[in-house]
């Protein structure tokens, strides 16, 4: 019985963990990647990471991307790349941005 008490405590903490993490604030970045002519770039790699985690996606046919579940609510380092274009970097991209529009050269 005594051994079950610590296990029960851990289970209770795990149940409330998503609620605690959600209160940290917005955890998303979204935007559009285009070329110099303003045309959307499909398949560009969008990579964001904070101090603890990485998150990567590809742009869709309209050049749109959406990253979520980024940790800590801290600004992230954002890198967008596509073969044939120079990579784009932003070292302190704030979270909660839905209009992170980037032009690749």
What percentage of amino acids are in beta strands?
25-35%
Number of domains: 1
CATH homologous group name = Immunoglobulins
The count of DSSP E runs of length 2 or more, i.e. the number of strands, is 7
Mean pLDDT: 76
Rg, Å, rounded: 18 Å
Strands of the widest sheet, in order across it, are 3-2-5-6
CATH architecture classification name: Sandwich
Could you please say which CATH topology applies here?
Immunoglobulin-like
- In DSSP terms (H or I, runs of 4 or more residues), the helix count works out at 1
Q: What string gives the helices and strands in order? A: HEEEEEEE
Span between N and C termini? 65 Å
Shape: globular
Specify the structural class: alpha+beta
Describe this structure in words.
By secondary structure, this protein is of the alpha+beta class. It has a single domain, classed as Immunoglobulin-like, CATH 2.60.40. The protein has 1 helix and 7 strands. The protein has one helix at residues 4-22; strands spanning 29-34, 45-49, 54-58, 64-67, 76-81, 88-93, 102-103. The strands form 2 sheets. Strands 3-2-5-6 form a 4-stranded antiparallel β-sheet, with no helix packed on it. Strands 4-1-7 form a 3-stranded mixed β-sheet, with no helix packed on it. The longest helix is centred in the first third of the chain and has 19 residues, at 4-22. It is globular, with a radius of gyration of 18 Å.
């Amino acid at each position: 019985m005594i051994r079950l008490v610590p296990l029960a405590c851990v289970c209770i903490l795990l149940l409330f963990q998503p609620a605690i993490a959600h209160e940290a604030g917005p955890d998303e970045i979204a935007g559009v990647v285009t070329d110099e002519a303003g045309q959307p770039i499909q398949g560009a790699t969008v990579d964001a990471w904070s101090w603890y985690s990485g998150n990567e996606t590809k742009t869709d046919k309209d050049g749109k991307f959406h990253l979520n579940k980024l940790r800590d609510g801290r600004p992230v380092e954002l890198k967008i790349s596509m073969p044939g274009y120079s990579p784009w970097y932003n070292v302190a991209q704030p979270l909660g941005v839905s209009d992170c529009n980037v032009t690749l050269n």
